[in-house]
Design a protein that fits this description.
single chain, mainly alpha, Alpha-Beta Plaits, two-stranded antiparallel sheet, 8 helices, about 45% helix, globular, binds 2-acetamido-2-deoxy-beta-D-glucopyranose
Length: about 140
């Protein structure tokens, strides 16, 4: 997912270029304007945390671009490409990462990646309904 700061900062094309150059195939993509309800469901594991109101404000502040991307070892490879959660630290420790390019700090970190096959399945169906990687028809993009 490219979060609102990534879209607003005009990083979408650069991020997609990195995705494609890294051997991923973008099999599905759609823009969404999330509302409070969507963010509360999507980040339900964070709903009791102190940063949650800020997370809702951030994630509803503009559209997000959600993509289903495929390759062998996709989850680990995407997480390596985006870099550490804290984009401020990423600028120092992982200067070539996507978060170093477009993020600001641990809350405004411009992209999201699923952290396991289970969360990928949940997050894909959250946005796209009951489709699962491997059986997705390739859309005309
Ligand atoms: C956005 O980025 C593209 C290149 O990806 C560039 O051509 C365009 O001028 C930029 N637009 C703005 C408003 O910065
Ligand atoms: C977001 O929530 C609205 C209702 O508040 C719903 O209509 C919409 O489908 C939800 N979007 C997603 C991506 O879940």
């Amino acid at each position: 997912m490219i979060k609102p700061d990534g879209i607003r900062g005009n990083f979408t094309n650069q991020i997609k270029r990195v995705i494609l150059q890294s051997g991923f195939v973008i099999v599905h993509e759609m823009m969404f304007q999330l509302d409070v309800r969507n963010v509360t469901l999507f980040y339900s594991e964070h709903s009791e945390k102190s940063f949650f109101p800020n997370l809702v404000e951030y994630m509803t502040s503009g559209p997000v671009l959600v993509m289903v991307i495929e390759k062998t070892n996709a989850i680990a490879d995407w997480r390596a490409l985006i870099g550490p959660t804290d984009a401020g630290k990423a600028k120092v420790s992982h200067p070539n990462s996507i978060r170093a390019m477009c993020g600001s700090n641990s809350e405004r970190n411009c992209v999201h990646g699923s952290d396991s096959p289970q969360s990928a399945a949940r997050e894909i169906s959250f946005f796209f309904g009951e489709i699962s990687p491997g059986i997705i028809e390739h859309d005309e993009l």
